[in-house]
Amino acid sequence: MQRILVAGITGAGKTTMAQALSARLQLPFHEMDALVFTGPGWTVDSDFHQQVAKIAATPAWIFDSFGHPEVRDLLWTGADTVIWLDYPRAVVMPRVLRRSLRRTLLRERVFGGNVETLSSWFSGDHPAWSSWTEHAGRRAEIDRRTTDPRFAPLNVIHLRSPREATAWLRGRPHPTSG
């Protein structure tokens, strides 16, 4: 495990898992949304693809993403492992709602200094809406990719609950122990 994608729907805990793996395995972690959104108004970095390609060309990395469309195949081709956080809506929706509510009420700055606003909750690309509407489609796409010969050989670790993920992470060896 040297080039790892932590995949799943919004609210599954991809960033948390990726950061924990990064610390445990001593591999560099890259937060996808921080690479994409680099300025106010959710400005997308014009060099996003080049930045991700440069990182993907290195021997070791962890991304907390299924992959934005413009870099998805690049990451899936370069990965050796996919950690799939495949949680039901009943798990992810309370998580994403709590996170977005906290961010909105506390005006927490996220990627590129942006904030979630009350009006953004009514947008189709708000995390709560996207998590709800994309759940089945994202699940089907990740499932398809995990068996696609284009991405073989790919080690897939399919975790179906937070409890299963925690147990798996606790069982991961430290880099010095093999």
From TrEMBL:
The keyword Chaperone does not apply. It comes from Streptomyces phaeochromogenes. PANTHER family: TOXIN (PTHR37816:SF1), YALI0E33011P (PTHR37816). One of its GO terms (molecular function) is kinase activity. SUPFAM superfamilies: P-loop containing nucleoside triphosphate hydrolases. Transmembrane segments: none annotated. Keywords: Kinase, Transferase. InterPro entries: Cytidylate_Kinase-2 (IPR052922), P-loop_NTPase (IPR027417). It comes from the Bacteria. This is Adenylate kinase.
